[in-house]
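Hi,

I'm pasting everything inline rather than attaching a file, because the server keeps stripping attachments. The sequence lines come first, and each chain or strand is labelled.
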Amino acid sequence: MDHFRYRPELLEGMPDDILRCMKQFEDWFTIDADQLKKITNHFVQELEKGLTVEGGSIPMIVSWIMGYPTGHERGRILTIDMGGTNLRVCDVCLAKGKGDFEQAQRKFKLPAEVKSGTAEQLWDFVADRLDAFINEHYSKDQIKGPLPLAFTFSFPVDQKSIRSGILKRWTKNFDVSGVEGHDVVPQLDAALQRKQVPARVVALINDTTGTLIASHYKDKHVKIGSIFSTGCNAAYMEECSAIPKLRGLDLPQDATVIINTEYGAFDNERHFLPRTPFDEQIDAKSIQPGAQIYEKMVAGLYIGEMLRLIMVTLHEQERFFEGQDTTRLRTANTLEAPFLSIAELDISEYLDDMRAEFKETLSLDPSLEELKACRYLIGLIATRAARLYACGVAAICKKKNLRRCHVGVDGSVFNKYSGFKSRAAQALREIMDWPPYELDLIALNAAEDGSGVGAALAAALAMNGKNIPDGCGEQDGTEVD
Ligand code: BGC
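And the predicted assembly:
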């Protein structure tokens, strides 16, 4: 069995036909250091291309946030974050001089019908939740005019200013009609007006931009903000003089701006990444085929589906789950990232936790060998995701010649999938060729709260510190609906 590269001990005692089958998956899913380096070098070129007038697959969106906050921002700002799964509303209090903040927050699950309904339904949903939140957290005399609202909208938008963003295309399987090609700020503001919600958008930011701002606010060594969650992306600060598409704007020589890379779109041409037949299937069955090719090989939304598609194939080849009812297994998107994480954490002899998950989520009762093989496959899928994730971070570092820095990373998969961080860190080490005695020169650290504090700071920057209401009242933690 020594020809297996990924943890051969997990396959000990397995019959030959399963071993042969696992070997094929190992060949598909293993990406060695040489390949990682080649992918990263190509990634660097694509980041550069995205900054040119002609552009490339990676949008490299100019956020119009031209610097970091100083720590002296103050005032009370509302924030909403429309990510992949939840709508999060926060009341952030920035306290001058302290470089600190306090906040209250509430999370609402975004219902499936809202994610695939009409623009009006989406914005009305957001406006209603914001209204309820304001009623809970603000007294009448605290509302003297429209409250400033920072909007974290985690999708690719064309930004002409910090207060605008034309949605290029939905990602993460969102499919709301009437938003693509439109500016989301007036759409949300119109809903707020229609519903008489006393708030107006003052800044539109991406979740990675918020993560960068919030993390840099606490730790000046942070040079990249990244999300590894339902989707995957990163932002960094760029010199405007290095952005050909900004030439002619007469910006000061030393001007800088945060770039939201939207690098989930890397290799949309499908020329470079080592794709498997399962990557093809995921893309073909997605709501936006041909888009976000890198993200679809890496992010949390897709790794569960990848495992499901593989298990369906193994069942169809009459290798796995013979004689069992596979109705649930055949239902698209039944498996989410935590399913994989629980399986990988199970080190018991009979894989009891993993078996319970198979029963609960898929109504399957696999043999111990099947469970072990699936656990092996999960390791391959998750390791590939983490290693490919490292290429994006490494590419920004190479492009900016950052030899030593911190990366603020947020997102449920990064924070909750045990082993993800160490796998990504190991891949970074291989790409950057650090000697074994050297600690991680580029450290992936858990980020500060980007869509709360980061967004509020972005709003304070956008408003130049003016007209921001004061009066931070009692703050009271999180509630989840
Ligand atoms: C979106 C990005 C976002 C990322 C992480 C991607 O699908 O296009 O805007 O930053 O997900 O949430």
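DSSP finds 15 helices and 14 strands in the chain.

If the labels don't parse on your end, tell me and I'll reformat.
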